[in-house]
Design brief:
The protein has 119 residues and is mostly helical. The chain has one domain. 97% of the residues lie in helices and 0% in strands. The protein is built from one helix and no strands. The radius of gyration is 50 Å and the shape is rod-shaped. 0% of the residues are buried. The mean pLDDT is 88.
Length: 119
Amino acid sequence: MNEEIKTKDALDALQRIKEAEEKARKIVQEAREKTAVKIIQDAYDEAEKIKDRHLNRARKKAEERRSALIQQATKEAGEIREKADQEGVSLKKKAEKAMPGAVTQISDRIKHLIEKGEP
């Protein structure tokens, strides 16, 4: 019977070892799954941060470019306006110089029409 007890104790011990190994495998598996989930979540969070950084950088560059284009367009519009004003002044001066001659020519034609009755 002593041998039977030893065998039974050995079988019980072996059973407890198997249960402990199974429990350890489950713990390791759970740890792997939790670690994998944590790694995936951390990677996702880091990807979001990188995306946000790049989007902010792109927005900033776009705003700088927009501002530069507006500034350049404003400058060009001012130059065009100034040139148009100068041309207007120049045309006005030419018109003022030509006015007496034009008035004389028109009055001579009118006079000629009145006197002769023909064009």
